[in-house]
Design goal:
Ferredoxin-NADP_redctase_2; flavoprotein; FAD/NAD-bd_sf; 7-stranded mixed sheet; binds flavin-adenine dinucleotide
């Protein structure tokens, strides 16, 4: 049984009209607001379009998390396309229909409209036509409100990069987080696995032998359950170093030497670095303001229909997936979220 959702008000749209700063009157109305214009959000947009749903995709102007990636590896037909090329190809598809609108802005808040649907607050840094003047805004930030009957969160997650010399230069090239994504490009090199969590260290002690025959682990000396970690590495026949990485020496992002806090150096060509992830600020905010359900890692909890615990609010993509994140799974999840909304509309009384 689906819950009927309110209809989009039959008001004319004026998305480009200047409005008063911090106004709460919506400047435009949509069936679906999609927050995040990555693979999950854009897949949701095309699925929504094909179900005759008018959507707005609100995408931050900031570079996406995978901006340094050289390919959407594993995505059939687009395997060697950069993230920007994937997004551009998606908009070429979407623009043929003309039902999805793109807005380059940050969504700062989502609230439940007492009359039904959601109010989506946006901030557009750098827009020249309106000065909000709020503390914290950059000059020229334009603020506005959109109304949507349903909302899909597709914001991805935030990677926490360590502040270590050489890390930024090597990131996504020879320092990688996911062998499924960039293992092929790093095959048959010497690998190190940098882990800060014992479960991850144990799980990966023997896991990556398809890509490299020369693997060693690097874990902090005070790692909990270090005996289990040592045993896992011994069973795998791989060396384990107990030290912290303090620097990476490289040539144009191609790693050759790892510096350790005990003064040692170790020759490695590739590091698999297990990064901590945290929710984007909007998700943390909605967990507080709307009571959006998240797990202990901050990942949004959804049911099989990609519904969150807030009726009308859906989530798709990396922000619901603690492990096994990919373009492919995000594309699938985005499409499924929009299809769930479409089904709810089809069978609503
Ligand atoms: C370096 C790197 C390389 C990778 N390589 C591969 C690969 O080869 N193959 C593969 O399958 N996967 C790869 N991945 C993983 C893949 O990029 C992700 O799984 C995928 O992009 C997730 O899609 P998404 O739409 O959920 O999130 P994202 O792609 O992260 O998109 C979310 C978007 O939401 C925007 N956003 C966030 N908050 C807001 C807000 N408040 N308002 C407006 N917009 C907001 C962000 O700016 C972002 O553009 C890689 C990841 C990284 C980091």
């Amino acid at each position: 049984m689906t819950t009927p959702r309110p209809e989009r008000p039959k008001q004319s749209e004026q998305p480009n009209q200047p409005e008063q700063a911090n106004q709460s009157k919506p400047e435009a109305h949509y069936d679906i607001a999609i927050i995040g214009g990555g693979p999950a959000g854009l897949s949701a947009a095309i699925a929504a379009t094909r179900m005759m749903q008018r959507s707005v995709v609100v995408e931050s102007a900031a570079p996406p998390r995978n901006a340094a990636s050289h390919g959407a590896h594993g995505l059939i037909g687009l395997d060697t396309s950069t993230p920007a090329e994937v997004r551009s190809a998606a908009w070429t598809d979407l623009d043929r229909y003309g039902l999805a609108v793109r807005r380059e802005a940050d969504v700062t808040d989502v609230s439940v409209d007492p009359g039904g649907g959601f109010l989506v607050e946006i901030a557009q840094p750098g827009a020249a036509d309106r000065i909000a003047g709020e503390a914290g805004d950059r000059p020229g930030t334009r603020r506005g409100t959109l109304w949507a009957r349903d909302v899909i969160l597709a914001t991805g997650v935030v990677d926490e990069h360590p502040d270590i010399p050489g890390f930024a230069e090597c990131w996504a090239q020879s320092v990688i987080h996911c062998p499924f994504c960039v293992g092929w490009e790093n095959r048959d090199r010497t690998w190190g696995i940098v882990a800060h969590d014992p479960d991850h260290a144990i799980m990966t002690a023997r896991a990556f032998r398809a890509w490299s025959g020369d693997i060693l682990g690097i874990v902090p000396p005070d790692m909990p359950r270090i005996d289990e970690v040592r045993a896992a590495y011994k069973a795998a026949g791989n060396e384990l170093i107990e030290a912290r990485v303090t620097g990476l020496r490289h040539r144009d992002g191609s790693l050759h030497t790892v510096e350790l806090d005990d003064g040692r150096t170790v020759d490695r060509q590739t590091l698999v670095w297990h990064l901590e992830q945290k929710p984007v600020p909007l998700v943390s905010r909605l967990a507080e303001t709307l009571g959006l359900a998240v797990d202990k890692g901050g990942f949004v909890t959804v049911d099989g229909e990609r519904r969150t615990n807030i009726p009308g609010l859906y989530a798709a993509g990396d922000l619901i997936v603690p492990m096994g994140q990919s373009v492919l799974s995000s594309v699938a999840a985005g499409g499924e979220a929009a299809a769930s909304i479409g089904r709810a509309q089809m069978f609503a009384e």
